[in-house]
């Protein structure tokens, strides 16, 4: 489906999109969490020509994985052309007898129900310890059979591993306001306060080692692969690992921060790696949020990101100190970042 709601030839023929094109261009949000039976966000996304990819994840303040899968499989059944989902698994009982067999069986069931991939979260590397009181890192050999199974099934692994580099700094030294807010409210994940935990470098090295061990597995590094602070660092990994892509969920502010003084570098990064970058937001909805707020927050997020990618305006964002120029990416790059890459990396038809 391509620009099915276009009212003329100008969208198809122009080199760049405009703000007015937003509702007419097919798009996907490749990272969000719909933890409710409500279809408010799905229907609103449809009205704006957006498909959604909802991520199940073993987060302490989310519903159980079973409940999340009930939400997402129901939405997929009702909206197969506009909604996809990613499954997850627990590691807390990974040393129990039968854990591997149970985990693979549950993932296989999720694939049968329509899951396009599997999510691993930062509790690997930053939270869970085994019986020897050692942190379980993502390159732990006990996880290899799970990743081999995912690759065998031709599914994609999505990884939120580590955190922004800001996580290892005092709050006042962090570069963007959303990190300052998050880690102020989540001191359990603020690694500056926990020097006994694995370092930022250890998190990145473990992830890279895991990719070296599984070269045939598609991997999407969530949140710019926790290399959000430097497009050069992301580029180095993309060059090294052909089966790696990155999503931008909750890290677009870091790209804007780099654009304050490095507009050309950020824009060149998108042009060069236009086949490896996925648009994503990390929007989360549940029954505690009113429908009006769901729609307003989603639209504000989507339209401001659209402005950053397609326009050539000078912009400001509450998360970023200083003004930055929007990237004014060509239409073919936008189509890949918003649509083609998501279909390719998650095998969404």
Explain the overall architecture.
This protein is an alpha/beta fold and 349 residues long. The chain has one domain: TIM Barrel. It has 13 helices and eleven strands. The protein has helices at 10-13, 40-47, 65-78, 99-112, 123-126, 144-152, 177-185, 200-213, 222-225, 231-240, 252-272, 291-310, 331-346; strands at residues 27-35, 50-55, 83-88, 117-120, 156-159, 218-221, 244-247, 277-278, 283-286, 314-317, 320-325. It has a nine-stranded parallel beta sheet with strand order 8-7-6-5-4-3-2-1-9, with helices on both faces. α4 runs parallel beside α6 (144-152). The longest helix has 21 residues, at 252-272. The model is unreliable at 1-8 (pLDDT under 50).
Rounded to the nearest angstrom, the distance between the terminal CA atoms is: 10 Å
The succession of helices and strands, N to C, reads HEHEHEHEHHEHHEHHEHEEHEEH
Task: Please give the order of strands in the largest beta sheet.
Answer: 8-7-6-5-4-3-2-1-9
Put simply, the count of helices is 13
CATH architecture classification: Alpha-Beta Barrel
Portion in strands: 15-25%
- Class computed from helices, strands and strand pairing: alpha/beta
Radius of gyration: 20 Å
Q: Can you identify the CATH superfamily?
A: Metal-dependent hydrolases
- Shape annotation: globular
The count of domains is 1
Low-confidence stretches: 1-8
Overall pLDDT: 95
Main beta sheet: strand number and arrangement? Answer: 9 strands, parallel
CATH class: Alpha Beta
> Which topology does CATH recognise?
TIM Barrel
Question: Total strand count, please?
Answer: 11
What is the share of helical residues? Answer: 40-55%
């Amino acid at each position: 489906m391509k620009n099915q709601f276009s009212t003329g030839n100008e969208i198809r023929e122009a080199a760049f999109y405009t703000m007015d094109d937003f509702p007419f261009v097919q798009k996907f949000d490749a990272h969000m969490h719909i933890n409710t039976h409500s279809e408010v966000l799905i229907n609103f996304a449809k009205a704006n020509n957006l498909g959604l990819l909802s991520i199940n994840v073993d987060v302490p303040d989310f519903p159980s994985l079973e409940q999340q899968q009930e939400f997402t499989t129901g939405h997929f059944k009702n909206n197969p052309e506009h909604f996809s989902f990613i499954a997850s698994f627990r590691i807390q009982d990974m040393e129990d007898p039968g854990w591997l067999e149970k985990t693979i069986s549950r993932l296989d069931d999720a694939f049968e129900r329509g899951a396009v991939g599997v999510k691993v979260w930062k509790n690997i590397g930053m939270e869970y310890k085994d019986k020897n009181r050692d942190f379980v890192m993502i390159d732990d050999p006990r996880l290899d059979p799970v990743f081999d199974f995912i690759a065998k099934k031709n599914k994609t692994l999505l990884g939120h591993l580590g955190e922004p580099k800001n996580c290892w700094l005092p709050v006042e030294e962090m570069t963007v306001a959303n990190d300052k807010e998050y880690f102020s409210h989540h001191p359990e994940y603020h690694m500056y306060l926990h020097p006994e935990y694995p370092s930022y470098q250890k998190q990145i090295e473990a992830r890279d080692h895991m990719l070296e061990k599984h070269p045939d597995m598609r991997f999407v590094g969530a949140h710019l692969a926790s290399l959000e602070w430097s497009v050069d660092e992301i580029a180095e990994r993309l060059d090294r690992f052909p089966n790696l892509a990155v999503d931008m969920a909750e890290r677009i502010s870091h790209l804007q921060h780099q654009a304050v003084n490095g507009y050309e570098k950020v824009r060149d990064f998108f042009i060069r790696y236009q086949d490896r970058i996925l648009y994503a937001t990390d929007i989360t909805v549940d029954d505690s949020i009113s429908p009006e707020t769901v729609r307003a927050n989603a639209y504000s997020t989507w339209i401001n990101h659209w402005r950053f990618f397609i326009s050539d305006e000078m912009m400001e964002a509450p998360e970023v100190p200083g003004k930055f120029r929007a990237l004014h990416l060509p239409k073919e790059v936008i189509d890949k970042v918003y649509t083609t890459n998501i279909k390719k990396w998650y095998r969404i038809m």
